[in-house]
């Protein structure tokens, strides 16, 4: 994760955003969204990832996550999902999108011909309940603001929230 933003509070939950290069619309099929969800489930089971909330939009992903070695888990998750998503895009014959991911591949990515994710996830440590509530509201209202659903309780959007209040870890 080459970024000036780092996870400096390893015991805190963090709000993250993973964005596709050039904001390209990768997550427009259920299969691509399911790959993200399945990989999160894997990390929860095998890497002790705690998932407090998440949402998948057409070109980015927000989540509130915690866990041991969170930076390493996110790095591995992005690496795995990039490969799996590129494979899925090939199966879906979305060549125009693969062409764009190839064109926008960073010069230092010498071993890859495509780049799916922008570098970094801009992690923000959740330091209190007020901040957690603000980030939960943001995660849940993001699809509404983008016009993907009429209101946050309705729609076929990939969205999840688990309990937080009462689990103070600050």
Automatic annotation (TrEMBL):
GO biological process: DNA transposition
Residues covered by the Transposase IS200-like domain: 9-142
Classification via InterPro entries: RAYT_transposase, Transposase_17, Transposase_17_sf
MF-aspect GO terms: sequence-specific DNA binding; transposase activity
Protein name according to UniProt: Transposase IS200-like domain-containing protein
Species lineage: Bacteria, Pseudomonadati, Verrucomicrobiota, Spartobacteria, Chthoniobacterales
């Amino acid at each position: 994760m080459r970024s000036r933003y780092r996870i400096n509070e390893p015991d805190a939950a963090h709000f993250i955003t993973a964005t596709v290069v050039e904001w390209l619309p990768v997550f427009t099929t259920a299969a691509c969204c399911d790959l993200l969800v399945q990989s999160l489930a894997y990390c929860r089971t095998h890497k002790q990832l705690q998932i407090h909330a998440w949402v998948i939009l057409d070109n980015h992903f927000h989540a509130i996550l915690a866990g041991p070695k969170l930076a390493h888990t996110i790095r591995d998750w992005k690496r795995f999902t990039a490969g799996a998503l590129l494979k899925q895009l090939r199966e879906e014959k979305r060549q125009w999108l693969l062409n764009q991911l190839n064109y926008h591949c960073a010069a230092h990515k010498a071993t890859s011909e495509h780049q799916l994710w922008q570098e970094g996830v801009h992690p923000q440590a959740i330091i209190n309940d007020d901040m957690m509530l603000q980030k939960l509201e943001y995660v849940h209202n993001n699809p509404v603001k983008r016009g993907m659903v009429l209101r946050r309780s309705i729609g076929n959007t990939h969205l999840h929230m688990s309990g937080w209040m009462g689990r103070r870890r600050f």
